[in-house]
Design a protein that fits this description.
485 residues; four-stranded antiparallel beta sheet; alpha/beta; seven-stranded mixed beta sheet; 13 strands
Length: 485
């Protein structure tokens, strides 16, 4: 039997047929339009999405690689940075760049302060100190840029222990970092205390506000209790804030803002000897999609302060409803005291497996995020969720009751897999098994076509979709069998 793989069609296909086929591939995707997802997508409504698409498409082909070629994009970027800096609020010297997302913004902060310490202090074995809850992008930055990440423990409130953080500082430290808020628990770290430590040790201090930068300023204006987290803290030297999260822009739009150019200049890359000419790049990417830059500017212009305030009002009303509803379920508790749109909750009883509750919620159509340390379920609330909070809480109550009545569910399906993964002591083994899963996911698909039987590319596409669904099931079986040995 011979083999066929995906290749370019011999002749171009009908565009309408292509779009219909693409639409069919979405059938198994997470259902964010119905409010059934609690992460990944920040969706307002169809009208706003249509507006963003039009703004994006106006600059679909433009490239932010050369700011002199497309002055419109440079204007958009400059004004997005200026509006963000004022919102945070920085002074007239605040500068920065747009990036492709929060990960790039965090990577750039680490790269910038590594190079600053190398230039000013000659540091060759750089380290950074950050909470255990700092976004995993900083761990990626540590691996990419050779900066050792030293984690500081948390207090009982799930915020970083500043005294412990201070003790981890040494002559190799090039950066302090903290979250506003952290992803796992939605709490803002003690930014003012850390800022004083940064000033005392003459260290840069980056606040990762990718999640909170476009929300917390408006939550505070509505009168909610929000710790000071921004450039009002003298020790803060830079901040990251994602426009494509609670700024409700198109995907691919974040910002990194520095207190002044003394910091930002160490972010830039310049090559003066390349045969292709003098090359300058302000951030990590070379080609920078013009559409995402333009759509970010458009999103901020369309919503304005009143729009963001209304979004914040709706979000916080939903968060309160969620927290009250979870608190009314005796078996569950919210972790910490979230300051914004994120919350996590766990079981108060060892007899109730929270991952099994998550499995039951997924059977009811919800896309559920699971966490470890401690075992918990996670939700990021948007204005779009207001219409489904009652349904979610109803399904949550029923899921808790069902799991209590069927304790054997803790040893089945996703509950067994996530429970084993979060508690197995050999973390190196976990890393190796995850690597194998990723290799499977990104490896070549198995031979699924028999041309002699009259199969074609459409058959392959259908089978490929089934293959990836099967791979998900295989992962659960893989973990269950491997970790029980």
């Amino acid at each position: 039997m011979s083999e066929t793989t995906v290749r370019l069609p011999e002749h171009g296909r009908d565009k309408k047929q292509i779009l219909q086929q693409m639409q069919s591939y979405r059938e198994k995707d997470a259902d964010y339009l119905s409010g059934k997802t609690w992460s990944l997508v920040y969706y307002l409504n169809d009208e706003h999405t249509d507006f963003l698409q039009k703004a994006y498409n106006l600059f679909f082909s433009e490239n932010g690689l050369n700011p002199m070629a497309f002055l419109s994009l440079k204007r958009f970027e400059s004004e997005v940075i200026r509006m963000t800096a004022v919102m945070l609020p920085g002074d007239e010297e605040a500068v920065g760049t747009m990036t492709s997302g929060g990960t790039e913004s965090c990577l750039l902060a680490v790269k910038t302060y590594r190079d600053l310490a190398r230039a000013k202090r000659g540091v060759r074995r750089p380290e950074m100190v950050a909470p255990e809850t700092i976004h995993v992008a900083f761990e990626k930055a540590a691996e990419y840029f050779g900066v050792k990440l030293v984690h500081a423990p948390l207090g009982k409130d799930y915020r970083v222990d500043v005294k412990a953080m201070k003790k981890l500082i040494n002559r190799h430290t090039v950066l302090l970092a903290a979250s506003a808020p952290c992803y796992p628990f939605g709490v803002v770290d003690p930014i003012e205390e850390i800022g004083r430590v940064a000033l005392r040790h003459n260290l840069p201090f980056h606040v990762d506000a990718c999640l909170g930068g476009f929300l917390l300023p408006f939550v505070e204006k509505l009168g909610h209790d929000v710790p000071v987290f921004d450039f009002r803290v003298p020790g803060v030297t830079s901040m990251s804030a994602d426009v494509h999260k609670y700024g409700f822009a198109a995907k691919g739009a974040s910002t990194i803002v520095y207190r002044n150019m003394d910091y930002l200049k160490h972010q830039f890359f310049i090559s003066e000897n390349w045969p292709g000419g003098i090359f300058f790049s302000p951030a990590l990417l070379g080609t920078r999609p013009g559409g995402s830059i333009a759509a970010a500017w458009a999103a901020m212009q369309a919503q304005g302060e009143t729009g963001y305030l209304e979004n914040a009002r709706r979000i916080m009303a939903s968060v309160k409803q969620m927290r009250d509803g979870i608190a009314a379920i005796p078996e569950l508790e919210v972790l910490g005291k979230p300051h914004g749109a994120i919350l996590a909750y766990r079981s108060k009883s060892p007899d109730l497996n929270v991952f099994a509750v998550g499995d039951q919620l997924e059977k009811r159509g919800w896309h559920i995020d699971r966490q470890q340390k401690p075992d918990s379920l996670h939700a990021m609330v948007t204005p779009h969720h207001g219409k489904v909070i009652d349904l979610y809480l109803k399904d949550l109550r029923e899921s808790v009751a069902f799991v209590k009545a069927h304790p054997e569910l803790a040893g089945q399906g996703g509950a067994a897999m996530y429970g084993l993964i979060s508690h197995v002591p050999l973390r190196g083994m976990i890393r190796q098994k995850v690597l194998q899963m990723v290799m499977d996911l990104y490896g070549a698909a198995p031979k699924m076509i028999d041309p002699e039987a009259g199969q074609n590319a459409d058959d392959w596409s259908m089978k490929a979709g089934l293959y990836y669904l099967e791979l998900k099931k295989k992962a659960e079986k893989f973990w269950n069998e491997t970790l029980k040995r």
